[in-house]
Amino acid sequence: MYARNSAAGTGASAYAAVGLQSAAMSASPHQLITMLFDGTKTAITMARHHMANGEIAAKGNAISKAINIIDNGLKASIDAEAGGAAGAALAANVSALYDYIKQRLMYANLRNDPALLDEADRLLDNISSAWREIDPHKPSYAPDASDAPAATRLSIGA
């Protein structure tokens, strides 16, 4: 019924890009890394879609985008000097894991294997969920007095 013209698609893309740029400019460093995880997950999801539909070039572009985000965003943001020796060891392990995920993505592209996309996605989900758990702006649970057992609340002055 409605024909999608390229001008409308371009306008919507431009609008989305401005929204993303605005979000990135106002985000904390922690939120920026979260956005990189989200972008990588979206690229892998798109690669899976293109793979299922036999769209080879689009699949390759989506996988390349995911690899680029991992390499130039997530991996580049690792600070090996933070946390002393333990932090350096953790940074090396996370860096090696990112390399492994990139390898899985490259093999997924070469072999047209959605199981390898799934593996990369699961590994990124694990890192992403751990990253989200350490968000310094995430409200932590602090029990209030009403959550304490009645005996504890009444023992003051008894």
UniProtKB/TrEMBL annotation:
Residues 138-158 are annotated as: Disordered. The keyword Membrane does not apply. GO terms for biological process: bacterial-type flagellum assembly; bacterial-type flagellum-dependent cell motility. It comes from Thiobacillus denitrificans. Residues 139-151 have a biased composition (Low complexity). Pfam families: FliS (PF02561). The lineage of its organism: Bacteria, Pseudomonadati, Pseudomonadota, Betaproteobacteria, Nitrosomonadales. This is Flagellar secretion chaperone FliS. One of its GO terms (cellular component) is cytosol. Its main location: cytoplasm. Belongs to the FliS family.
